[in-house]
Amino acid sequence: MKNPRVRFAPSPTGYLHIGGARTALFNWLFAKQNNGKFLLRIEDTDLERSKDEYIDQITDALKWLGLNWDEDIVLQSKNNDRHQEMVAKMLKDGTAYKCFLQKEELDNLRKESEQRKEIFRVPQTFRNLSPEKEKALIEEGKSFTVRLKVPKGETEFNDLVYGSIKVQNKDLDDFIIARSDGSPTYNFVVAVDDADMKISHVIRGDDHLANTPKQILVYKALELDVPIFAHLPMILGSDKKRLSKRHAATNVQEYKEKGFTSKVILNYLSLLGWNPDSDKEIFDENELINSFQFKQVQKKSAVFDEKKLLWISQQHLSEMSVRDLMNEIYALNSGWGDGLEWEYLKEVVKLIKDRSKTITEIASMSEIFFTDKLDYDSDLLSKTYNDKSIAIIKDFKSALTSIENWSRVELENIFENLMEQHDVAIGQVMKPIRVALSGIPFGPGIFDLILLLGKDICQIRLRHTLSEVE
């Protein structure tokens, strides 16, 4: 485990999604914990679908998360000559062969197997073809693929999550390592690239489990060191189906735009499949590095729960300093609070941070402190105000006028008098006043809200509310 070399290898055919970010995080944690290297390889061999904009987005998202790589980015497409060299080596060594079975033939054979209700196996027709016959077929213009000669026996590996896994080689076809157009296949190039990058541990999603025996056979055929594997559980939506946009945002950058901090996302991602064997759920970066263990990674699929994400976010925000929170707000909106004093803005954030779940929620709620009049929701007004609550607002407005000492004690006395005068509970006083002063039925403590707004703004909003509801 000392000084491991691990890699995250996304395809630039889309944005970095939650599952990919979780894989990158577990690789990064393992490397950091064991004084290793975290590498980034962009698997861009799908030339039609790969785009530079996706590469930029993936790298930007990783940087935002703080998952910085330790060496230059490897572009898989730049390794084509090396891949071709290794295909040629396997043909020369006799661990691979040219297969002249045509697509139409394979399709027909597959249909026949289905009709007989048998498992289809690719026939090894050309596995031991003589050089002379092979040359003749090429001269005839026959196209061919290159297939690995799967040896007899079994392929076994010890997965850090799933334990010992054995596959009988007879259950594997002689799989293609180079297509008829000469382009090498995924399972081949991944093994070659990982070996060239000296990757010691391959940490990836368990959707790759079926690929692992094939890749091990490539390593062995080329006499390369086989890395240690760890396959991570799939992430599902609340309906236990594969996570998609119908469950939640899947693009990591969307969570940044929604006002989640990178530390919140890292904390939440770490809990998707990893169980720290304790009640602790809030972790900072160093705690994750020190605590993470593969033996605590679960085999069962993880379920993405946005409510849990919001709860974790709220815990982090409540622990953050006001200055750090303000920096996060400015990162999302550089014009936030323009023209207002820094000290006033600090007091606003201090007041609302413990009740907020995201940075955008803090920024949005803070807007009530930046204007004299509010735009009220007509439905909320109709639900909040009746004759009694309007009378309470009028009496509260009059009481504020007579306050000489603008203090919490004076406000508490006013509220007690209103409760006694109108024979109501504290909630029936608080709600209409809160809606009038903030435009929302929830938020920071009512007395803190009133004190920070100040007498003049409170009076303006109370008059405005009365003009709207009377």
Q: How would you describe this protein?
A:
With 470 residues, the protein is mostly helical. 48% of the residues lie in helices and 10% in strands. The chain contains 20 helices and 12 strands. It has helices spanning 18-33, 52-65, 80-93, 103-115, 131-139, 186-196, 212-221, 252-257, 262-270, 285-291, 306-319, 322-332, 342-352, 359-366, 378-384, 387-401, 408-422, 426-438, 446-453, 455-469, and strands at residues 5-8, 37-42, 74-75, 96-99, 145-148, 154-159, 163-168, 176-178, 201-205, 228-232, 235-236, 302-303. The strands form 5 sheets. The protein has a 3-stranded parallel sheet with strand order 1-2-3. The chain has a 3-stranded antiparallel sheet with strand order 4-5-8. Strand 2 (37-42), helix 2 and strand 3 (74-75) form a beta-alpha-beta unit. The chain is elongated and about 110 Å long. The N and C termini lie far apart (73 Å). The model has no long low-confidence stretch (mean pLDDT 94).
Strand percentage lies at 5-15%
Please give the share of residues in helix.
40-55%
Largest sheet: 3 strands, parallel
Number of E-type strands: 12
General shape: elongated
Number of helices: 20
- The whole-angstrom Rg is 32 Å
Overall pLDDT: 94
Distance between the termini: 73 Å
Specify the structural class. mainly alpha
Task: Outline the low-pLDDT stretches.
Answer: none
Neighbour order of strands in the largest sheet: 1-2-3
SSE layout and pairings?
Blueprint: E1 5-8, H1 18-33, E2 37-42, H2 52-65, E3 74-75, H3 80-93, E4 96-99, H4 103-115, H5 131-139, E5 145-148, E6 154-159, E7 163-168, E8 176-178, H6 186-196, E9 201-205, H7 212-221, E10 228-232, E11 235-236, H8 252-257, H9 262-270, H10 285-291, E12 302-303, H11 306-319, H12 322-332, H13 342-352, H14 359-366, H15 378-384, H16 387-401, H17 408-422, H18 426-438, H19 446-453, H20 455-469
Parallel strand pairs: 1-2, 2-3, 9-10, 11-12
Antiparallel strand pairs: 4-5, 5-8, 6-7
Helix pairs in contact: 6-7, 9-11, 12-13, 12-14, 16-17, 16-18, 16-20, 17-18
